UniProtKB/TrEMBL annotation:
It catalyses: prostaglandin G2 = (15S)-15-hydroperoxy-prostaglandin E2; 2-glyceryl-prostaglandin H2 = 2-glyceryl-prostaglandin E2; prostaglandin H2 = prostaglandin E2; (5S)-hydroperoxy-(6E,8Z,11Z,14Z)-eicosatetraenoate + 2 glutathione = (5S)-hydroxy-(6E,8Z,11Z,14Z)-eicosatetraenoate + glutathione disulfide + H2O. It is a multi-pass membrane protein. GO terms for cellular component: membrane; perinuclear region of cytoplasm. Its cofactor is glutathione. It is found in: Cytoplasm, Perinuclear region; Membrane. Keywords: Cytoplasm, Fatty acid biosynthesis, Fatty acid metabolism, Isomerase, Lipid biosynthesis, Lipid metabolism, Membrane, Oxidoreductase, Prostaglandin biosynthesis, Prostaglandin metabolism, Transferase, Transmembrane, Transmembrane helix. It comes from Otolemur garnettii. This is Prostaglandin E synthase. The chain crosses the membrane at residues 89-110.
Length: 144
């Protein structure tokens, strides 16, 4: 299927890289804010008083948790969807919309943009996933 190369090469690679970047940003914010999750790290960086939570670190953690909760299911759905032999342009648009929604969502979290941006970008990224899931279910039901 011509859509299969769109899954690993077009947008999913950028999503996985983005997850790693958010993890790195989280670590850097922890160092910058001196807010460590465990006493061992706090002792290494100045003392137990730095074993604490921080609003900015929590923001990064929420962005990363959102990625883990939504990107992995998308990777699975996108792979299965690609085997259904979809129209390559439609498949490409599904993947692009998910990528853009996740990018905007991450920027909105890390830059603390107004709240509607979070929910709109989340919804935008989930619409293609719902579409792919429904198409997968439809194909599975057709073959019963």
């Amino acid at each position: 299927s011509p859509a299969i190369p769109a899954v690993p090469t077009c947008h999913t690679r950028q999503l996985v890289i983005k997850m790693y970047v958010v993890a790195i940003i989280t670590g850097q914010v922890r160092l910058w804010k001196k807010a460590f999750a465990n006493p061992e790290d706090a002792l290494r960086h100045g003392g137990l008083q730095y074993c604490r939570t921080d609003r900015d670190v929590e923001c990064c953690l929420r962005a990363h948790r959102h990625d883990v909760e939504t990107i992995y299911p998308f990777l699975f759905l996108g792979l299965v969807y690609s085997f259904l032999d979809p129209d390559p342009f439609v498949a490409w648009m599904h993947f692009l919309i998910v990528l853009l929604g996740h990018m905007v969502h991450t920027v909105a979290y890390l830059r603390k943009l107004r709240a509607p941006i979070h929910s709109v970008s989340y919804t935008l990224a989930q619409l293609p996933c719902v579409s792919m899931a429904l198409q997968i279910l439809w194909e599975a039901a057709r073959h019963l």
